[in-house]
Design a protein that fits this description.
Structural class: alpha/beta
Bound molecules: NADP nicotinamide-adenine-dinucleotide phosphate
Distance between the termini: 17 Å
Shape: globular
Oligomer: single chain
């Protein structure tokens, strides 16, 4: 397969950098354009980007110029797919414009997430929702596929394998890393030695997005997952990785061994596509009493390209119909750039990327 030319929007930011890192030597995609705001435009990526990833900046992007939104450049360079890490406030306009030009947009922004014809895709959980793009293609030529808010991605991955046990209600409390707020999102003076019990819009997103992702899609539309989800979200002084404490009320009593088996045997059904960023085991269950931890479990997942794509669970406790557990999700990989890339890989395999 000839690599598809792609662009990264918001390339200097936290998620944008994760895109740039994960797209190095990608077998399907080749970065042909780097875009950011007017403050960065005209500068050279290797000189301007404040690189905060754990690995070195890929040599192939160091000398690339950063550009402001430029549809002519996109057309001229045969860019057929855009990875977006834009702030939601501008994503609606820019991503909408790109979609109208017949291009596939894979976005981390919340701008389009709740639109009826736009999937919030986590392919191990709701692969069938990708079909929503057909309607968009008819209307616009291109399409937008979003992935969920970072904390929602961990929650729905943990819930999907156990929905068969019958879920009555879900309560989740989060301990979210500062990288989730973006490169300049949380001030050191606020978070050092502190916990912030409020993240604007986060609790509402977790509730609404979980309902959409776990809903059933059929050609007539989407039937939302109708289970009460309650969320309380905190920012904690951790660099990467969102920890979540989850309580699930089941319909009936369930055996803990059966629940653990449902999680550890969960594969998400993507094996036949051989997607480079798909983890072999999307859920890892730890039996140690002090796991999962952000520092230790943040890069769970194999093969190498899927590091950070597995969600780690642990500390299962059960009292009658109530179960409690912790989960850890890498917010910039599984919760952002990694799932976005996985979604694009799946769309490529299904021949959904529009030809220009
Ligand atoms: N961080 C996470 O864990 C996470 C997880 C899931 C989803 N998300 C979502 O992903 C998106 C990016 O988040 P982030 O954490 O990477 O934020 P960030 O670190 O603040 O980065 C924002 C990026 O957008 C660019 N940008 C800002 N204003 C722009 C404009 N007017 N035109 C073009 N580009 C502009 C910035 O470029 P300059 O450097 O030039 O200003 C920067 O590259 C957000 O919608 C966020 O909600 C983030």
């Amino acid at each position: 397969m000839q690599p598809v030319n792609v662009a990264v929007f918001g390339c200097t930011g936290m998620v944008g950098q994760q895109f740039v890192r994960m797209l190095e030597n990608h077998p399907f995609f080749r970065i042909s354009g780097l875009f950011s705001s007017s403050a960065s435009a005209g500068k050279i990526y290797g000189e301007h980007a404040e690189w905060v990833m754990e690995t070195e900046m890929p040599p192939g992007v160091k000398k690339m110029p950063i550009r402001e939104f430029d549809m002519n450049f996109i057309r001229k360079n045969d860019i057929r797919l855009v990875f977006s890490a834009l702030p939601a406030s501008i994503a609606r306009r820019l991503e909408g414009e790109i979609r109208r030009d017949g291009i596939a947009v894979f976005s981390n922004a919340s701008a389009f997430r709740m639109d009826g014809d736009v999937p919030i895709l986590i392919p191990e959980v709701n692969e069938s929702h990708l079909l929503m793009v057909e309607k968009q293609k008819l209307m616009y030529g291109g399409f937008v596929v979003t992935n969920s808010n970072c904390s929602t991605s961990g929650l729905v991955m943990a819930l999907r394998p156990i929905t068969g046990f019958g879920i009555r209600s879900v309560s989740v409390s989060t301990y979210q890393a500062i990288s989730g707020g973006g490169l300049n999102g949380v001030r050191a003076m606020e978070i050092q030695g502190n916990i912030l019990p409020f993240i604007k819009g986060e609790e509402e997103k977790m509730v609404a997005e979980a309902g959409k992702i776990l809903g059933k899609f059929h050609p007539g539309g989407l039937k939302t997952w109708d289970v009460a989800v309650n969320a309380s979200c905190c920012r904690v002084p951790v660099r990467n990785g969102h920890l979540e404490s989850v309580t699930v009320e089941l319909e009936d009593d369930a055996d803990p061994g059966d629940l653990i088996n449902a999680w550890t045997s969960f594969r998400g059904g993507l094996q036949s596509y051989h997607l480079p960023t798909a983890p072999m085991r999307p859920i890892i269950f730890r039996t140690e009493e002090n796991r999962p931890q952000p520092l230790v479990d943040g890069f769970a997942g194999d093969p190498h390209r899927a590091r950070g794509m597995a969600v780690t669970l642990g500390r299962l406790r059960k009292r009658k119909r109530w179960i409690q557990f912790f989960l850890l999700v890498n917010n910039t990989i599984r919760g952002a750039a990694g799932t976005c890339i996985l979604n694009a890989e799946l769309a490529c395999k299904k021949n959904l990327i529009p030809e220009i």
